[in-house]
Write a structure and sequence with these properties.
By secondary structure, the protein is mainly beta. The chain has one helix spanning 79-83; strands spanning 3-14, 20-25, 29-32, 37-39, 42-51, 59-64, 73-76, 98-107, 110-112, 116-124, 127-138. A hairpin with a 5-residue loop joins β1 and β2 (20-25). The protein is elongated, with a radius of gyration of 17 Å. The mean pLDDT is 88.
Length: 142
Amino acid sequence: MRYGYCIFCDDIRTELGEKLSFMGVYNGVLLLPEFPYTLPKLCAQINLVTPTNLPYRSIVLECFAPGEDQPLLRENLDTVQLDEQEQMSVVPGEQTPDVVVGASLVFSPLRIRRPGFLSIRAVIDDEPVEISSLRIAKHHDH
């Protein structure tokens, strides 16, 4: 089964051993003091998972700001990364392993004109798939 997920955060850092650290991870909502608002930086780590026997042929990532028709970003994933899917060896009788294709998106700066959803979708083998979205709302002082 294919699926994807996304982590929205303030920063993504690569650590020793190719590990990723996520700073300031958002838990479903990003609260801003006013609109429009410019964030100095917003990051999204997207991971797309597929079985090795169903490799991706093409992946285009798109990100849309609230209320915008045109994507903030439209990026083709590197075909070299896609070619590596074929190199996974499958042992007969074992469950087919999954391949994870990952991408880190960095928006710096990011202008948010109105509340709503910042959404990420992937066009996988020419089929649009919603991956994740982050709700952006006005912070109300109590």
